[in-house]
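Form 12-C: Joint structure prediction
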Amino acid sequence: AQTVTQSQPEMSVQEAETVTLSCTYDTSENNYYLFWYKQPPSRQMILVIRQEAYKQQNATENRFSVNFQKAAKSFSLKISDSQLGDTAMYFCAFMKRGSSNTGKLIFGQGTTLQVKP
Amino acid sequence: DAGVTQSPTHLIKTRGQQVTLRCSPKSGHDTVSWYQQALGQGPQFIFQYYEEEERQRGNFPDRFSGHQFPNYSSELNVNALLLGDSALYLCASSYRGPSGNTIYFGEGSWLTVV
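Section 2 - Result
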């Protein structure tokens, strides 16, 4: 069975600074996807970034980037130039590759991020 | 292009009652998955529907059941409600093709059991 662990329940950062959220996972699978989702107070789950395990290059989406260490089973999210709108709960999630697994995500416990003005 | 839509947004039920939640997937998506998210926790996978059949199931009792219709929309039914069923229920849609690795979520249905 796969597990996802986020060891930082809460974090805070000053506006315009950089913050890194940690995530580790455990799996015996070789082909999978990793995701970071953002859930603001509205509770809408929003995809931030996606990483395919077979790609060595770290994914980047504007101010968001990941540090994917497959051997260490680590998948951290870096948010640069933090904005007040980044305040939310962030979830790391794992999904096995394969059409039958599409939609079945394993989530971590979440990290609450507060961006301070 | 409408995203994933869920209804109702909020509802309150009494212990022992039954509830039905509804979900319409994003256009072009054929797979619907349901999640339960307790306050302060990460979402937990309940089950997944594809081609009108339950394909995968998480660790949830048989009180949780579902259905998928020919238009890909889906329902989640929970019978004999318990206080512990109070949670946000999220619907996620995806496409079961080779590029179907992006999952979109609805805004959720808040269920309170009293």
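Section 3 - Comments
The mean pLDDT of chain A is 94. Chain A touches chain B at residues 4, 33, 35, 37, 42-47, 50, 52, 91, 95, 97, 99-110 (CB under 8 Å).
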